[in-house]
Design goal:
It comes from Streptomyces longisporoflavus. With about 160 residues, the protein is mainly alpha-helical. It has helices spanning about 10-30, 35-50, 55-65, 70-80, 100-125, 130-145; strands at about 85-90, 90-100. Strand 1 (about 85-90) and strand 2 form a beta hairpin.
Length: about 160
């Protein structure tokens, strides 16, 4: 599908774009030994660490939009690969804090560079990363992401 047809809903197009992006990032990350989901975790962790934060798994889950249980699974895999460290939070023994190892930082910097190049390719039809159309799209996406979304529950009169 190269152009949207009148029958394509915005939801379908968002889904298609998300899948296109996930597949492209998965392929680009494979030589670095990462998946798209793992990249999302280490890149977010990298950014948070640069601001001095050592986030908990829960905080990282909230930041990425991933389920906490999935973040825990990803964190364990990344820890066994030597890319992150998991440690109990001294202020809350139930919480687990995450930090990139030196190896994790090096791999993450490489991964970010690869994904930035991929992002430039994706956004080229809009004029590139700093183009007005890209800024407008980013604003619209933020609006949609900020909107609450909960599934509707069928009205059951028997209860």
């Amino acid at each position: 599908m190269s152009k949207g047809s009148p029958g394509h809903t915005p939801g379908f197009l968002v889904w298609r774009l998300a899948n296109k992006w996930r597949v492209a990032v998965d392929r680009a990350m494979a030589p670095l030994g990462l998946t798209h989901a793992q990249y999302s975790l280490v890149a977010s962790l990298y950014g948070m660490q640069r601001t001095g934060e050592r986030p908990s798994q829960r905080r990282l889950a909230d930041h990425t939009g991933l389920e906490a249980l999935y973040v825990s699974k990803l964190a364990r895999a990344l820890e066994s690969g030597g890319l992150i460290e998991r440690a109990r939070d001294p202020r809350d023994p139930r919480a687990v804090q995450l930090a990139l190892t030196e190896q994790g930082e090096a791999v993450t910097r490489q991964a970010i560079a690869v994904v930035q190049e991929l992002l430039q390719q994706l956004l080229e039809p809009l004029g590139g990363l700093d183009a007005p159309r890209t800024r407008a799209l980013t604003g619209e996406l933020m609006t949609l992401l900020d909107a609450p979304l909960a599934p509707s529950v069928p009205n059951d009169e028997s209860t």
